[in-house]
Amino acid sequence: MSDRFIVLSGCSGGGKSTLLEELRRRGHAIVEEPGRRIVQAELASGGTALPWLDLAAFARRAIALALADRAAMQQHPGLVFFDRGLIDAAAALDAEGGEPILPALAAAHRYNRQVFLTPPWPEIYAADPERRHDLAAALAEYERLERVYPMLGYEVVIVPKMPVAERADFVLGRL
């Protein structure tokens, strides 16, 4: 386990990216969401490993990318904040009826015991070319993650809805 590896997960459109940017601004290392990077690459290349076309292929790619991200950050000396990551991707594959690899991956590649979830925040939710699902799908994903992380032995910490600087203070204060 790496206590230095901190997961920020939760509801799509819940302010994770804004919070991560604030943590980066304060000097912390961040790793961008595997899913968004995959969607960007697939759209640019005309690929089909997209969550709205082939969720299983998308999740497998996200797992591989999350593992590569973890390996790349192993030697980083400070805290590393991950925008989603391995557990989110494996949970998506599991929910899609793919290979039941979530427990094994989660056991072999631990993060800090505290996982920070950004709750649904309908007032700031917005779809975009890379996030095509609606708020109802985002809520279903959030509820799945809210169940999965504790089942894997993580302590879920809900990040309050407040200005981003206060959210960053909250996360850092909990650590």
UniProtKB/TrEMBL annotation:
Pfam families: AAA_28. This is Putative ATPase. It comes from the Bacteria. Residues 6-167 form the NadR/Ttd14 AAA domain.
